Amino acid sequence: MPSTAAITIYIFGASALYQGASILLAPRQALATRQLPESARPALTAFGVAISGLGAYYTLAAYQENRTFFALTLFRIPAAIILGAQGPGWRPMAAWEVLATLATAASLAWEGWA
Hints:
Elements: H1 4-25, H2 27-33, H3 41-64, H4 67-72, H5 77-84, H6 91-110
Helix pairs in contact: 1-2, 1-3, 1-6, 5-6
Transmembrane segments: 42-61, 68-87
Keywords: Membrane, Transmembrane, Transmembrane helix
């Protein structure tokens, strides 16, 4: 049975994989959602590839119960701040980053390892 912290990492990893796949499979919709011009498509595609890779790393770390990795993910707050500053289209993703970070931190603290 995975730990509570691992479950939070699984959820975040799965959401990252989903987000990356949705960007790669529907780039025009991803551009519109984030209020980006067509000229941003190459950068958004690269972001989709990167976030898919991160999702794979997160799910693997959760499977391995890699608690050091779990603790290091708490440094996602700067990423959330940067994403949120990019405009309204990025704020839901920034909020998800903060929520996931807080859930992982609470889980690690609850389990006695933070």
